[in-house]
Design goal:
Length: 397
């Protein structure tokens, strides 16, 4: 990119929109100063007070109330799309057609048809379309990925994992876009869309899914009396609306290499606000990650010393991915959280937009093709559930 500055905007000032805004603000200050000037231009939200307060809070020049305003804005080069999944397609297509570089939140969309159209739009576009798969930027998860890729764990024999949340465990939690849409668009799409890419990162390509189960534990929720941001509770009406999609999902995957793994996701796992956890077992060793303790990874190495065998707790630090230079204070054990993942992601996206070559940059942000692949895996889970747990191939097209 020949421009000596990049103008940034965010659409959606809700829970994750604020994380994107904060991340763009921080992105130039992590690692060496290789980025051009980053101009924080606008935050847009249909709920204007939220757009206005987020713009002020994160130091953006202005706020807007529509994505079209950003598509038309000459001072905007890069836009994060951080609104309800069913709105992604229209906004992403409009922005790409206007020549903006787009970072879309996961899942790519709420239907395979829309996701396929978005892949086609990104292929046609002169600008860059990418999907944020934030947890790939967690230092602990990237460290496990390195252990697998470097062969430290050997051949992978078995994987298991879960993403348990409890934002829906209170029957008085207000209805929102998250509870609307067909079975499979609930917890499975919302938190399962993170598990889907981790499943293939850990064990390789998934061939088929079986044992799909979807359940809705709380079948109606009250209407909110105010604006709902993320999982927040607001005052609610006595009137209730039906919950249309899944609170819980479970499934087994069969990997192309013959191994298998079981997974579950929930939004009603009371007490687990944000527990993303997995274990990966290889013939040379194993690793366990649990987001309840994001600054450590448990590692077992099958090194023949049976008298002292056992899992060790590796405390993350500058010898692990993203750490050195990625924090103002990058000493071992300083700790890490989910918000840093958004910062590394914003940095990686801006590096690509700025034309910084791969190899001199953070790992590239995922393509829309990868986002579509993740949705196909989750679609196979929903189809398995419809067929009482039958095995369903993960469709290629
Ligand atoms: N990567 C992550 O860890 C992560 C975490 C949470 C959410 N997400 C994703 O981010 C997206 C948004 O989720 P959220 O929890 O922030 O939602 P949210 O409900 O908190 O916020 C969405 C915002 O979009 C606004 N909005 C609705 N229609 C709009 C429009 N046409 N133009 C502009 N603004 C509009 C709403 O007023 C609201 O403020 C979803 O795709 C979700 O899956 C990702």
């Amino acid at each position: 990119m020949s421009k000596n500055s990049i103008g940034v905007a965010v659409i959606g000032a809700g829970m994750a929109g604020k994380a994107h805004a904060a991340a763009y603000r921080a992105a130039a200050g992590v690692y060496d100063t290789t980025l051009p000037e980053i101009r924080l231009v606008s935050i847009a939200d249909v709920f204007e007070p939220l757009a206005e307060s987020a713009a002020k809070r994160f130091g953006f020049e202005r706020h807007d109330t529509s994505w079209q305003a950003l598509a038309e804005a000459e001072d905007v080069d890069v836009v994060s799309v951080v609104v309800a999944n069913r709105l992604h397609r229209e906004i992403v297509e409009g922005l790409l057609a206007a020549g903006k570089h787009v970072l879309c939140e996961k899942p790519l969309s709420d239907t395979l048809e829309d996701a396929e159209a978005m892949v086609a739009a990104a292929r046609r576009a002169d600008s860059i379309g990418r999907i944020g798969l934030t947890f790939l930027r967690q230092p602990g998860i990237a460290y496990v990925q390195r252990l697998i890729e470097e062969g430290t764990l050997g051949n992978i024999l078995h994987v298991s994992g879960r993403y348990l949340t409890d934002y829906g465990c209170d029957p008085q939690a207000p209805i929102s876009w998250r509870y609307k849409g067909p079975q499979g668009s609930g917890a499975l799409a919302d938190v399962g869309s993170h598990l889907s890419y981790l499943i293939e990162m850990l064990g390789g390509e998934v061939e088929a899914v079986s044992g799909g189960v979807l359940s809705t534990a709380i079948t109606s929720r009250p209407k909110p009396l105010g604006n709902v941001v993320g999982h927040e509770h607001v005052e609610v009406s006595e009137e209730r609306e039906p919950v249309e999609n899944d609170d819980y999902a479970a499934f087994t995957v069969k990997y192309a290499n013959g191994t298998a793994g079981t997974f579950e996701v929930s939004r009603v796992a009371t007490g687990h606000a944000n527990t993303l956890a997995f274990e990966v077992y290889g013939d040379k060793g194993s690793a366990k990650f649990d987001f309840d303790r994001p600054s450590e990874v448990r590692v077992f190495l099958n090194d023949g010393d049976t008298a002292n065998a056992g899992f060790r707790t590796v405390i993350l630090g500058p010898d692990h991915p993203y750490w050195r230079g990625g924090f103002a204070m990058d000493a071992p054990g300083v700790g890490v959280g989910q918000n840093e993942g958004f910062v590394f992601q914003a940095r990686a996206f801006l590096e690509e937009v700025a034309g910084i070559p791969e190899g001199e940059s953070l790992p590239r942000v995922a393509t829309f093709e990868t986002g579509l692949r993740n949705m196909r895996l989750l679609d196979a889970v929903a189809r398995s559930a419809q067929r009482q747990g039958a095995a369903v191939a993960v469709k290629e097209s």
